[in-house]
Amino acid sequence: MSAQAKYSVVIPMYNEEAVIQETYRRLKKVMGTLQEAYELIFVNDGSRDQSAEIIKDYSCWDDTVKLIDFSRNFGHQIAITAGMDYASGEAIIIIDADLQDPPELILSMIDKWKEGFEVVYAKRVKRNGETLFKKWSASMFYRVLRASTDINIPVDTGDFRLMDRKVVEQMKRLPEKNRFVRGLVSWVGFRQTAVEYERDERLAGETKYPLKRMIKLSLDGIMSFSYKPLKLAGYAGITLSILGFIYLLYVLYLALFTGATSKGWPSLIGIMLLFDGFVLIMLGVLGEYIGRIYDETKGRPLYIVNEVHGIQQEEQLPAEHTI
Ligand code: UDP
Ligand code: MG
């Protein structure tokens, strides 16, 4: 059944034992209404709880269930990528494990796909039960990203989406390590459209995206699609140099015509701080890019699979990202 699956649902999970059974139940219910073959690919991203065991159990008696078990936590974006590498369906759907993305929406996505769209992403019109800070920071992020890149990355859209096989095959050709999957999907192109939904609260458990990871994801999003931060440093440098030069002329005037230069200490220190600060920011920006270049040049595989369940031997073609 799985080899000819029409739909592949990819579910990344990291310590989701509290919700995963309910997620499985809801997904089965929705996919069951379709009367077409499907597979549920759970990617266990190094969970330290029972998530993998629960899915492994399911895969023993439900042949739509597949498990890709990572050797450790590689991160959400990598887990999605692995799921896409292993997916065999004609349409691939990515959904969070915590039921914040309603599985029922998959049906609307499939309708759009059947109309001929290759990418159908879910756009949040409302986010329920998340902190004000999360809503604000997410909203800011999408807008900064939009302003700083040339490709059209839709705002208020997460990774919950449907992609045609064509799109996924193209995604597999993108080898970059610091992945921002939704940006890459936009970059790949094809006909894209949105379905709207209200994002619910997590059913149970807590967010696996603490502030630190959100910052990393934002930086990946902005840095991999834009050179603007580098240019920004350049513009700031030019502006500060012009201001510095004018001030220098003023100091020269004071020294030559008024003899009041000894009073200049505070401004001298001020200028030094200003420029030192600027140089440090500039170094930081360069560091971010150089770090990413370094990641790419190492040529490491994106992820390491510990074991795979429910996927037949002949299906276990080496995923392109693991070569
Ligand atoms: N996730 C993952 N690896 C990680 C972090 C998260 O596979 O390192 C999964 C997680 O289990 C969930 C999805 O990615 O299915 C989204 O994570 P989460 O719900 O914590 O993010 P939020 O909705 O709070 O932004
Ligand atoms: Mg969530």
Describe the structure.
The protein has 323 residues and is of the alpha/beta class. The protein has two domains: 7-210 and 301-309, Spore Coat Polysaccharide Biosynthesis Protein SpsA, Chain A (Alpha-Beta Complex), CATH 3.90.550.10; 227-298. The chain is built from ten helices and eight strands. It has helices at residues 20-32, 51-61, 76-86, 105-115, 132-148, 165-171, 181-188, 211-223, 228-258, 265-298, and strands at residues 7-13, 38-44, 65-70, 91-94, 119-127, 157-164, 192-199, 305-309. Strands 7-5-6-4-1-2-3-8 form an eight-stranded mixed sheet, sandwiched between helices. Strand 1, helix 1 and strand 2 (38-44) form a beta-alpha-beta unit. Helix 9 runs antiparallel to helix 10. The longest helix is centred in the C-terminal third of the chain and has 34 residues, at 265-298. The radius of gyration is 25 Å and the shape is elongated. The model has no long low-confidence stretch (mean pLDDT 82). Uridine-5'-diphosphate binds next to strand 1 and helix 3.
Radius of gyration: 25 Å
Shape: elongated
* Low-pLDDT residue intervals, each spanning 5 or more residues: none
Binned strand content: 15-25%
Extended strand count: 8
Distance between the termini: 27 Å
Q: In which range does the helix fraction lie? A: 40-55%
User: Any idea what the CATH architecture of the largest domain is?
Assistant: Alpha-Beta Complex
| SSE-based structural type | alpha/beta
- Number of helical segments? 10
Largest sheet: 8 strands, mixed
| Ligand kinds | uridine-5'-diphosphate, magnesium ion
Oligomeric state of the chains present here: single chain
CATH-derived topology of the largest domain: Spore Coat Polysaccharide Biosynthesis Protein SpsA, Chain A
Order of helices and strands: EHEHEHEHEHEHHEHHHE
Strand order of the largest sheet: 7-5-6-4-1-2-3-8
CATH superfamily of the largest domain: Spore Coat Polysaccharide Biosynthesis Protein SpsA, Chain A
